[in-house]
Amino acid sequence: MPKTLLAIESSCDDTGASVFIDAKIASNVVSSQLDHKNFGGVVPELASRKHLEAIGWVVREAMERAGVDKQDLNAIAFTRGPGLMGSLLVGVSFAKSLAQSLNIPIIEVNHMDAHILAHFIEDPVPHFPFLCLTVSGGHTQIVKVNSPMDMEILGNTLDDAAGEAFDKAGKIMGLPYPAGPHIDRLAQQGHPIFSFSHPSVADFHFSFSGLKTAFLYFLQREMKSDPRFIEDHKADIAASLQKTIIDILMKELIRASKYTGITEIAIAGGVSANSGLRQRLTEVSAELGWRSFIPRLEYCVDNAGMIGQAAWFKLEQGDFADWTVTAKARM
Ligand code: KG4
Ligand code: ZN
């Protein structure tokens, strides 16, 4: 009998479900909430309601695409945190209820671990230990991954996350939320001709709030003398901002590689979808002899495939969650 796992992701504004059969991904369905665009950011209350609307059909769709029935499931995994409490609760409750009705175990997954373990969904997979630069809307970390269950955080952001830096700077430019993909697209048509000051912090750590302020003051100054400045220089502004963020990230990643002697290097999280970062990592890897791992786009952004992969490692060890488990916004 094949072993079958259903995984659910609902930490922020994407409702995801994925099915794994015998350690291989069989389906990966994501429903993205577009409603937050009008508000310039994710509205937690709205996000949880939308999860509740979507979760039923997203799970059904994932099971249909994988060709499995509820009775085939051996375990159900869910994102426990970190994330928005109301959003997480929808996934946790759904997973628990379905598992109770089927009398099968549940598996809790840390969303950030899952972003990293997404690298094991497809070949080639990194060898342990490897370094992972995890860059999303809520996190910016350099993690030393010793095994699927043993990860050491070497560096963290002291304020904003890299994705937040993209989104907040984009908002200043008048771009829709989330601005990261828009800046990426604009940057491809521009040149990084502007520079913005930003502080250096301790080894392997990051700070983006100073960059945001420098960016804001730069634009305010330019707009005073030329009210069309943003409109006329959108692509160059985006390219300059993106280059600065990538410079900050890569400087610490290179430092961490030199310090640990590890040359297996991965990137993960929503910002790893950035074409500039992907290109820079490829270039630096060639230069420094790194073996680098860049996930497919669908596994960079929030998705349940990565939750399924992380859960599979736990399933193999019989590492199931207690029925009293609940969501955790920060972990
Ligand atoms: O991992 P993710 O989907 O959700 C969180 O767990 O936060 O990451 C979302 C973040 C957003 O800040 C978004 O702007 C950013 O990832 N992002 C990008 C790109 N695609 C998504 N940032 C820069 N370039 C992109 N292509
Ligand atoms: Zn994420």
What is the structure about, briefly put?
With 331 residues, the chain is of the alpha/beta class. The protein has helices at 44-66, 85-102, 111-117, 162-172, 180-187, 209-225, 229-260, 275-288, 297-300, 304-316; strands at 4-9, 14-21, 24-32, 75-81, 106-110, 130-135, 140-147, 150-155, 264-268, 291-293.
What does this structure look like?
This protein has 331 residues and is α/β, with parallel strands linked by helices. It has 2 domains: 4-116 and 300-317, ATPase, nucleotide binding domain (Nucleotidyltransferase, domain 5, 2-Layer Sandwich); 127-295, ATPase, nucleotide binding domain (Nucleotidyltransferase, domain 5, 2-Layer Sandwich), CATH 3.30.420.40. The chain has 10 helices and 10 strands. The chain has helices spanning 44-66, 85-102, 111-117, 162-172, 180-187, 209-225, 229-260, 275-288, 297-300, 304-316, and strands at 4-9, 14-21, 24-32, 75-81, 106-110, 130-135, 140-147, 150-155, 264-268, 291-293. A 5-stranded mixed β-sheet has the order 3-2-1-4-5, sandwiched between helices. It has a 5-stranded mixed β-sheet with strand order 8-7-6-9-10, with helices on both faces. A hairpin with a 2-residue loop joins strand 7 (140-147) and strand 8 (150-155). The longest helix is centred in the C-terminal third of the chain and has 32 residues, at 229-260. The protein starts with a strand and ends in a 15-residue tail after the last helix. The structure holds 5'-O-[(R)-(carboxyoxy)(hydroxy)phosphoryl]adenosine and zinc ion (ZN). Residues 12, 136-138, 163, 166-167, 178-181, 184, 269-271, 273-274, 301-302 line the site of 5'-O-[(R)-(carboxyoxy)(hydroxy)phosphoryl]adenosine.
